[in-house]
Amino acid sequence: MGFKYYLTTPIYYVNDEPHLGHAYTTVAADALARYMRLRGGDVLFLTGTDEHGQKVERAARERGEHPKQLADRMVDRFQALWRRLQISNDDFIRTTEERHRQAATLLFQTIQQHGDIYKGEYEGWYCTPCESFIPEGQMEEERTCPDCGRATERLKEESYFFAMSRYQGALLQHLEENPAFIQPESRRNEIVSFVQRGLRDLSISRTSFSWGIPIPGDSRHVMYVWVDALTNYLTAAGYGSDPERFRHYWPADVHLIGKDILRFHAVYWPTLLMAAHLPLPRQVFAHGWWTVEGKKMSKSVRNVVEPNRLLDEFGVDAFRYFLLREVPFGLDGDFSRSALISRINGDLANDLGNLFSRVLTMIERYLGGVLSRPRSGSGPLSDRARAMVGEVRELMECLSFHRALGRIWDFIADMNRFVDEKAPWLLARERDKREELETVLYDLAEGLRLTSLHLFPFMPETARKMWKQLGISSRWEDQVGEASWQWGQLSDGVRVAKAEALFPRLQKEKEKRIATARAEAAPPPAPVLPEPAPPSPRAGSHTLVSLEEFCRLDLRVAHIMAAYPIPGSKKLIRLEVDLGGETRTLVAGIGQTHQPERLQGRKVVIVANLAPAKLMGIESQGMILAASGDGGQPVLIVPETDVPPGAKVR
User: Fold this and answer.
1) How far is CA 72 from each of CA 11, 68, 183, 383, 466, rounded to the nearest angstrom?
2) Do 506 and 344 touch, CB atoms closer than 8 A?
3) 218-223 and 214-215 strand pairing
4) DSSP letter, residue 648
């Protein structure tokens, strides 16, 4: 392997139900792990559960069970969600494991031997939900926690202390010499300011409960839960159990965390490692929080987003894509169903899905489904692809998932423009353009191969579907190293599969669900009464149709990809239109008023469920709508604003 890469999520507290924030951190880490593996990295991706502490002990007691039973049940929920999200973690650590108890004990003993742990008495305020000691100067009004806002408790008990204050200068020096140690920059500034105000020694043991790792040599005390939990990063790397593994993987390359636990990871953790004479992780990256429809997630207002429900409704890949595309990683974001649906219908169904379907349909229609490698070398699309590969690499290395996906979508837009510029449907009409047609379609398929490779970290199932339909037989496990990222890897003679929709537009499914729900809730039909005879039509009146009859018409927005005159006719024009993943041929009698070259690229409205009819030997698969203008000249009906191809006209 080319390089080592060790990344972690925080280990999640088992007294919490898995929620959107947990999924966000873990999906981000998974995307990074998958990308680094594809680049040739020897990746160790760690996640897990934090199972000790007073809060877990109390919750278990209230349920009449042992804390380990509660932990086992919650661990199953986390692991089941990770499986659904297709999280590819290499290790899942539990702080109740023996390997972790040994590592935490060794770390405590090492720091104690270096003279940085002493026994004293702690008196102060403690937030049990956050498992955090609150200095007097940081207390909110009415003695509430500054982080969660809940009530704190006044504690007075014997405690072991870590002499954290001794490392204030060393930590500030490290922050100055390593500006990327804490990211984003705003979080780094926050920690620098905190440390400059002065570090106090940290109470690192408790005697008021027993659910934790015993202090070596003094079993009346259990280890402070954050010292216990933070040590998990060492445990998984082999600390105290596998020296060779530990030398290989430690220090960690990045800890991915939420901003609410930054202080523990950026102050407590590095000073503990300094005291143990161990290298510090290379980076701590703290992402923002998610609100829901502009409001903070809270059980009290019942707006906590439960990931499993979203996965049931929208699917895994759409959910993963939305989390990492919607907001810049590191900033706060707002979740809404409308924003998720917009991303699915726009980015996934229209931009990616439509392009993929169009290209594979044209390969099947014009080349019999078989690709040929170009004889004349690569075309202009290859240069855009190479630029995309390099830029995405830089963005992924700095954890800019939002911009990396944006750059991939820029390349998807490049390919959509390339289709319109090259117009394969026109090249297919001329025999002497066969080689150019083969080159254009090969380049598009190769561009889609590279797109699928870049999407694999974010949307693994979608990438696999694309891989299969592109006719690629090699395994994803073999796509490692620089060769896979080079242009021109699709084999000569590869046969593509029939195009299947990657992301059907959600509106159709939504309409079906609404119609089904209405039908199930509808009252029984009323008795059928004889209908009165219709009135005689008056001169100049219009024939009336029922709403049911009108709704049978399937009116849709179509994008004209190409237009050209039909030999032998002054009036008829042949149109190749895109209906959002489906290409159709229409024959329209507008040739006397509309020039074909000016129709290309326009959006029009068509009747999509009209029975096919042959005109001048060409089968027309629909009818374009037009009004009668001055002198009876046809005036095309066009959308008022830009809407995607295939949108239904109501």
Assistant:
1) 15, 6, 34, 52, 38
2) yes
3) antiparallel
4) B
8 Å CB contact between 485 and 453: yes
516 pLDDT tier (thresholds 50, 70, 90) = low
Residue 646 predicted with pLDDT over 80: yes
| CATH 1.10.730.10 boundaries in the chain | 334-485
Helix (H, G, I), strand (E, B) or coil at 601: coil
H helix or E strand, kind and range, residue 113: helix 98-113
163-200: burial string, b at 16+ Cβ within 10 Å, e else: bbeebbeebeeebeeeeebbbbeebbebbbeebeeebe
Residue 631: how many CA atoms within 13 Å on its side-chain side?
A: 3
Predicted confidence at residue 363, as pLDDT, reads: 96
d(CA 360, CA 525): 47
Q: What is the dihedral of CA 484, 485, 488, 494, to 10 degrees?
A: 40
Domain 334-485 belongs to what architecture? Orthogonal Bundle (1.10)
With the CA atoms of 403, 405, 411 and 412 taken in that order, what torsion angle do they form, in degrees rounded to the nearest 10? -140
* pLDDT score at 535: 43
**Residue extent(s) of CATH 2.40.50.140 domains in the chain:** 547-636
Q: Using CA atoms, how far apart are residues 419 and 578, in angstroms rounded to an integer?
A: 12
Options 3.20.20.210, 3.60.21.10, 2.40.50.140, 1.20.120.450; CATH for 547-636 is 2.40.50.140
> Alpha-carbon dihedral of residues 513, 519, 522, 526, nearest 10 degrees?
160
Assign domain 3-307 to its CATH architecture: 3-Layer(aba) Sandwich (3.40)
Span 331-364, pLDDT tens digits: 998 888 999 999 999 999 999 999 999 999 999 9
Which whole number is the average pLDDT over 50-71?
A: 94
Q: Is 158 left (phi over 0), alpha (psi -120 to 50) or beta?
A: beta
Spell out the alpha helix ranges (H) of 116-158.
Answer: none
Which tokens belong to 430? 């001329």
Query: In whole angstroms, how large is the CA radius of gyration of the chain?
Result: 31
Highest mean pLDDT: which range of 172-181, 306-315, 546-555:
172-181
From-to residues of CATH 3.40.50.620 in the chain: 3-307
Residue 592 CB contacts under 8 Å (≥ 6 apart), including other chains:
570, 571
Residue 614, token pair as written in the block: 């042959």
In DSSP terms, 562 is beta-bridged to 576
Half-sphere exposure of 591 (CA within 13 A, CB side): 17
441 within 8 A of 362, measured Cβ to Cβ: yes
> Which residues, 6 or more positions from 589, have their beta carbon under 8 angstroms from its beta carbon?
571, 572, 573, 634
Q: Report the chain's terminal Cα–Cα distance, integer Å.
A: 56
| Cβ proximity of 329 and 28 under 8 Å | yes
What are the helix and strand counts (H, E) for the chain?
23, 26
Q: How far is CA 17 from the centre of its chain?
A: 21
pLDDT band at 514 (very low <50, low <70, confident <90, very high): very low
DSSP 212-252: SPEETTEEEEEE-HHHHHHTHHHHHHTTTT-HHHHHHHPSP
In this predicted structure, which of 59-63, 477-481, 572-576, 611-615 has the lowest mean pLDDT? 477-481
